Amino acid sequence: MEKECLFSGKKVQVGVDSGYDNYIMAIESSCDETACAIVKNGREVIANVVASQIKTHEKFGGVIPEIAAREHMDAINIVIDEAFEQSGLKPEDITAFAGTVGPGLVGCLLVGLNAAKALALVHDKPFIGVNHLNAHLCANYIDTDIKPPFMALLISGGHTQIIDVESYSKQTILGETIDDAVGEAYDKVARLIGLPYPGGPKLDKLAQTGDPNAYELPISRVDGYNFSFSGLKTAVLRLVKKLKSENGNDTLTETQINDICASFQECVSKTLAKKLKKALQEKRYKQVVIAGGVAANSEIRKKIFEFEKDGYKVNAPIMRYCTDNASMVASCAYFNTNTFDDVDVEVFSRA
Ligand code: KG4
Ligand code: ZN
Known about the structure:
Elements: E1 2-4, E2 11-13, E3 23-28, E4 33-40, E5 44-52, H1 54-58, H2 65-87, E6 96-102, H3 106-122, E7 127-131, H4 132-138, E8 150-155, E9 160-165, E10 171-176, H5 182-192, H6 199-207, H7 230-247, H8 254-283, E11 287-291, H9 298-305, E12 313-315, H10 319-322, H11 327-334
Parallel strand pairs: 3-6, 6-7, 8-11, 11-12
Antiparallel strand pairs: 1-2, 3-4, 4-5, 8-9, 9-10
Helix pairs in contact: 2-3, 4-11, 5-6, 5-7, 6-8, 8-9
The protein binds 5'-O-[(R)-(carboxyoxy)(hydroxy)phosphoryl]adenosine and zinc ion.
């Protein structure tokens, strides 16, 4: 792909067909992680720096956008310097600078995107804008030789999608959630049973000691490849109220909490695996990947890796590339997965 250097307008080749080693520096700041990475040829991570804001937002039980944006401003230069230091590379060694455009929190996105644009301008390199969801998918290219076509399950705090990935740049969403995203459902249920933010990983941990068959929870019946998780969340709310009133002291026992976590996790993972399998069979794909923060979930990974028994090739990024990071953004820029090349591109909040 031919791209233009921002200051001089000089044309350079970037990406798979460029014919030389590419080192893309990317910045990610869509939510509560300030991240910078340098990736060689879309697959080899040379530097990966993530500054997490979890400690700050824990106090509030969720991400406060204005506070998050200010923390990005404090961290942005530090993560960029650290990425250069880790890699031993200099700005002139970078092929192009990439940044997340959206979806995400507008004030947060602005910090990282403008830093990426400024770096490209100052060092006279191309700028590449990246869609955060596409970036999550591209995490599957890191440290692997996976190539499309494949089926993908994208599960994050804001999205739940089954995507037909025909090529690096051609993707079709076959189905998505009609209400809550999986990560959102995890975080809401976690809050219901009194777990601190971010609830998803904590719920996952407790589920491992609970009984997945302790409580029967409803599996949503939605047509095609779409999902719905709000009914399940309401069912957990009702169950929690009932158990608390039976206990007579407005609290749940440790066993009850673990069993609720395990039963909820069983219900969610079963639903996701069933629809994903159906999509694979209908499209006759032999490869499947999972992506997004919730792809770090132990039971969802387990159920999807079981597809290997039926002859499917399954991939999931290692944990640090499932949750928000900039390596996936650099990979997405390299593979030119629906990128935005215009330096005037504006941040956007929703997909
Ligand atoms: O992809 P991500 O980092 O941010 C978005 O782009 O939304 O995903 C964050 C979501 C949160 O809802 C978090 O609770 C969830 O991923 N998550 C998990 C696990 N690890 C992260 N949910 C369930 N089990 C996990 N192990
Ligand atoms: Zn994300």
